[in-house]
Design goal:
This protein is α/β, with parallel strands linked by helices. It has twelve helices and 22 strands.
């Protein structure tokens, strides 16, 4: 395990957004179902390694599918693998074996799939998935819905995904529908959820992955707090929900310059606000860092699902904020932050969580002295080049 030591500095310059891992997950699976075609660029991260590895294992007829620590890979590929009707066992690492898959454990046996699990991983499935009506809660994880849409479109016969509660993180499902449409597969959104016509053919194509808004957010916040940062390679017409960072920054009062494929954010006079994270849960760590240095009160709500990520992200963020001197109160679905410019360096925990490490690396820019964060290697899950890009525009981060 490695630490990163960070000295205060100002980020000024241009960063190219890495390719979106959310879009890449979906495109890789669509390409697999199409039987060919390329997907590029793909970031060399653990999450991408997981999806590529599971797909390659299925192609080779292997029975053990290692999702590493990727919740997206796991929840997308369970129904996709079930659609092929083979007996396979899903395994994982880190906190992934404990992350929820209960919706599938209850739902899949109703549609001809046998499941063997003690509530998490390992999970063994057998039997071929059948079309039909799938009733599922929309407030646990949108990843279940995405997995079902990908799988059901490849089956014969029509199916319906019926949401029994309102869908949270809907932009992620919108992205799924958009990527599937790019591959020639139509999903119809209805009042009850989604209608999927079976027997559709995924077409082969060479897919270009757009830039990642969730990763761009770290650098844009660094610019707003005390720098001048431009992020290139961003699609302004994206379905990525994390483009919502622009609305969040505007609510804080940040000065933003938006061009066709780039966003510039400069040091601004910031004031806390209320942030509903229902559709942007991955932004919570960096938004919390933003709130910590902004005047007044910031309330983050609607983030209860963060309890089940790579770490309990609500608790992880709150604990680290307290270590740097922030007046913060943890709530059931988020936190209340009283911002201050007088925060101090500390030894922080990364919780083996890439977004925690990256968010507090941004916070460390504005702390006195040296900040040390452990589990720095966790950035390899999604953005291995983060510290390289960070240092390229003025950061002082040294991985030990």
């Amino acid at each position: 395990m490695s630490d990163v030591k960070i000295s205060s500095s100002i980020l000024k310059g241009t960063v190219i957004a890495p390719p979106s891992k959310s879009a890449a997950h979906r495109a890789l699976i669509c390409s697999f179902l199409a039987g060919g075609g390329t997907v590029s660029p793909i970031i060399n991260s653990k999450d991408m390694e997981a999806t590529v590895g599971v797909i390659d294992a299925l192609k080779r007829g292997e029975s053990t599918l290692d999702c590493i620590e990727s919740g997206s890979t796991l929840r997308f590929m369970i129904p996709v693998a079930a659609a092929f009707g083979k007996e396979v066992t899903f395994i994982g690492q880190g906190r992934l074996p404990q992350r929820p898959i209960g919706e599938y454990l209850e739902l899949l046996p109703k549609h001809n799939v046998n499941v063997k699990s003690d509530g998490g991983l390992p999970l063994t499935i057998s039997g071929q998935l059948k079309n039909g009506s799938y009733e599922i809660s929309g407030d646990v994880s949108s990843q279940y819905v995405t997995g079902l849409l990908l799988a059901l479109a490849d089956l014969e016969g029509d199916s319906a995904v019926i949401l029994t509660t309102p869908l949270q993180s809907k932009p992620y499902v919108d992205m799924t529908v958009k990527v599937m449409k790019d591959y020639g597969v139509e999903i119809k959104e209805t009042d009850f959820g989604y209608l999927i016509h079976g027997g559709q053919e995924f077409k082969r194509l060479d897919y270009t992955v757009e830039g990642d808004w969730s990763q761009a957010a770290f650098f844009l916040v660094a610019g707003a707090l005390g720098g001048d940062v431009t992020v290139l390679g961003l699609d302004m017409n994206t379905t990525q929900g994390d483009k919502g960072i622009l609305d969040v920054l505007k609510s804080f009062g940040a000065e933003i310059e938006i061009k066709e494929n780039s966003v510039r954010c400069v040091k601004s006079r910031l004031k806390g606000c209320v942030v509903d994270a229902t559709d942007i849960p991955d932004l919570v760590p960096i938004v919390a860092a933003l709130g910590a240095f902004s005047g007044g009160k910031t309330i983050i709500k609607g983030a209860q699902r963060l309890r089940y990520k790579e770490s309990d992200r609500i608790k992880s963020v709150v604990d680290n904020l307290k270590l740097i001197g922030t007046d913060v109160t943890e709530t059931e679905d988020g936190m209340i932050i009283n911002g201050s410019a007088r925060l101090h360096s500390a030894r922080l925990k990364g919780y083996n969580d890439h977004r925690i490490v990256m968010a507090f690396s941004v916070a460390a820019l504005f702390l006195d002295g040296e900040t040390v964060i452990d589990d720095a290697e966790s950035i390899n899950k999604s953005y291995p080049a983060f510290f390289k890009d960070y240092n390229k525009i003025g950061g002082k981060a040294y991985v030990l």
